């Protein structure tokens, strides 16, 4: 045999014992999928990404804001908000007076959880805020249009723009702080607030709600217009600040409501935790209690009670389980044919009489089903629906000799049949490959 023939023979022998190329390719693909699933991040871990709220503050700097030190009070309140919520939401600042609106600081930072970028953004905003001066008229309608244009420019730049969870990409709000009447002339600012609801930024639809805060008294402002804006803005009633020392608490409370955790499996307040300390009042047949949220799901209603569990088909102790615990010493809590629950003592081989025997599974006495041994010549001679003629005797194949119960084929039996089938198929395939 030549060297070439020897090499060819070795290759044939090797190929004879190697798997088919297609089978090998499928095995590789399955292995790759398994490895990918093994090391893929769990859904819970993926959801720990911060989904911050966007809040644009639209501040009136018209001349009347000089009266009664309203602008200085607003600056103090805004500084408190910026300090308290730094790193927890995206904040922007826009002012309006005269005939126009000016963007002082865009919505940002991109990732509020990034401490360096958050500090830089807030410090720049504070510098702009503290340098504000009041003059001119109150162009509310113009300001609202400019705010909408800013949302349109910024929202599609944020990571959650393409998020499939609607709650994480539509959490955007406008804070309107003003002390006077709209000077735009002939235009209704209520319409502009309404247009922010169901507003499209790019291809995504946002529900931008507007908080309305009026600084002054009811005679110095068009309170009916402010209330109408709050109604269509989804935040009614509007906040009337007649005493400026309440402005800081009002503004911080409204902002805090945006960053409160809700039961949605999202880190709403960007603190690295999901749905922490989220509880809700609930009630059931046991009374009133509390339900706790975990990973976007509410727990069963937790009710404190001194009731003890009894055998009656009810959850007496309000632990979410029915008839649990040691209710029937030496027996079981069972429902009778009449629908009544009662404790039934477990049987023993000696306690079952009158043609019954103790079922090891149910622990109850059951009727003994005897085998049929009538003589026969064919299956037609047997009276039982399940009986066949075997060795001139009528037998029920579902009842093995010596068994007092009517056994059914179990899932384990089915499993063994399938395993045997797969084994025979595998042996046949291997044998075919070798030949």
Protein architecture, described:
The chain has 435 residues and is α/β, with parallel strands linked by helices. Among the domains are: 53-259, von Willebrand factor, type A domain (Rossmann fold, 3-Layer(aba) Sandwich), CATH 3.40.50; 346-408, no CATH class. 32% of the residues lie in helices and 21% in strands. It has 11 helices and 17 strands. It has helices at residues 3-16, 21-39, 43-46, 70-84, 115-130, 140-154, 166-169, 189-195, 223-232, 247-259, 411-434, and strands spanning 53-60, 89-97, 100-108, 172-178, 197-201, 204-207, 209-215, 239-241, 279-284, 287-294, 297-298, 331-335, 341-345, 356-358, 365-367, 388-390, 393-395. The strands form 6 sheets. A 6-stranded mixed β-sheet has the order 3-2-1-4-7-8, sandwiched between helices. A hairpin with a 6-residue loop joins strand 14 (356-358) and strand 15 (365-367). It starts with a helix and ends with a helix. The model is unreliable at 33-47 and 402-413 (pLDDT under 50).
Helix content: 25-40%
CATH fold category name of one domain: Rossmann fold
What CATH architecture of one domain would you give? 3-Layer(aba) Sandwich
Q: What form results from the Cα inertia axes?
A: elongated
Rg from alpha-carbon coordinates: 38 Å
- The number of helices is 11
The share of residues in extended strands comes to 15-25%
Report mean pLDDT, rounded to a whole number: 79
Give the number of DSSP strands.
17
Which runs of at least 5 residues are low in confidence (pLDDT < 50)? 33-47, 402-413
How do the strands of the widest beta sheet line up side by side? 3-2-1-4-7-8
């Amino acid at each position: 045999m030549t060297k070439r023939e020897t090499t060819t023979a070795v290759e044939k022998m090797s190929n004879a014992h190697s798997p088919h190329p297609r089978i090998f390719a499928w095995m590789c693909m399955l292995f790759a999928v398994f490895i990918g699933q093994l090391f893929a991040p769990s859904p819970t871990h993926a959801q720990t990404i911060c989904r911050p709220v966007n809040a644009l503050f639209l501040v009136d700097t018209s001349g009347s804001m000089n009266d009664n030190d309203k602008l200085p009070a607003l600056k103090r309140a805004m500084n408190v908000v910026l300090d308290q919520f730094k790193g927890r939401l995206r904040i922007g600042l826009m002012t309006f007076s005269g005939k126009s609106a000016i963007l002082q600081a865009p919505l940002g930072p991109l990732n509020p959880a990034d401490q360096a970028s958050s500090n830089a953004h807030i410090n720049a905003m504070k510098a702009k805020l503290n340098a504000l001066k009041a003059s001119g008229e109150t162009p509310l309608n113009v300001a609202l249009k400019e705010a909408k244009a800013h949302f349109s420019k910024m929202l599609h730049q944020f990571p959650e723009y393409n998020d499939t969870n609607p709650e994480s990409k539509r959490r955007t709000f406008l804070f309107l702080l003003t002390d006077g009447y709209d000077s735009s002339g002939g235009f209704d600012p209520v319409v502009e607030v309404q247009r922010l609801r169901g507003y499209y930024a790019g291809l995504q639809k946002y529900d931008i709600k507007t908080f309305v805060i009026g600084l002054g008294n009811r005679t110095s402002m068009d309170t009916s217009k402010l209330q109408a804006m709050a109604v269509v803005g989804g935040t009614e009633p509007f906040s009337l600040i007649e005493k400026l020392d309440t402005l800081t608490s009002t503004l911080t409370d409204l902002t805090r409501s945006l960053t409160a955790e809700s039961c949605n499996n999202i880190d709403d307040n960007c603190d690295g935790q999901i749905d922490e300390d989220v509880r809700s009042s609930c009630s059931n047949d046991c009374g009133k209690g509390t339900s706790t949220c975990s990973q976007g799901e509410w727990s069963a209603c937790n009710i404190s009670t001194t009731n003890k569990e009894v055998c009656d088909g009810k959850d007496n102790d309000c632990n979410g389980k029915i008839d649990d615990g040691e209710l029937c010493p030496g027996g079981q809590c069972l429902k009778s044919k009449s629908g009544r629950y009662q404790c039934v003592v477990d049987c023993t081989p000696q306690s079952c009489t009158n043609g019954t025997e103790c079922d090891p599974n149910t622990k109850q006495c059951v009727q003994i089903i005897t085998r049929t041994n009538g003589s026969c010549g064919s299956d037609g001679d047997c009276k039982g629906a399940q009986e066949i003629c075997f060795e001139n005797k009528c037998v029920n194949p579902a009842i093995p000799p010596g068994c007092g119960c009517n056994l059914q084929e179990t899932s384990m039996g089915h499993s063994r049949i399938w395993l045997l089938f797969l084994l025979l198929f595998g042996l046949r395939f291997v044998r075919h490959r070798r030949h």
